[in-house]
Design brief:
The radius of gyration is 15 Å and the shape is globular. The strands form 2 sheets. A 3-stranded antiparallel sheet has the order 1-2-3, with no helix packed on it. It has one domain. It has about 90 residues and is an alpha+beta fold. It starts with a strand and ends with a strand.
Length: about 90
Amino acid sequence: MTKAFTRFPSHNFTLHHLVFSFWGAFFHGNEIYISTEFMDGGSLDRYKPIPESELGRMAVMVVHGLQYLWSMGIMHRDVKPSNMLVNTVG
């Protein structure tokens, strides 16, 4: 029997209160699966329109999260609303 899954190295811990937990990723055939913390609010692009005052607060939070990732040697290479996940906890 051949090995069906190839695991990628991951950090396996909660990084920061503004960054959701990433537990790992693996290939199965030609598909990649990613295991993360469940974000029940979905992606930010589904919330339209967003008031300008709220967008300012969100932008500050995104920058703080990205700064933390950068300090850990991690670069997010696809920053956009559909890749920003939210939850109902806050």
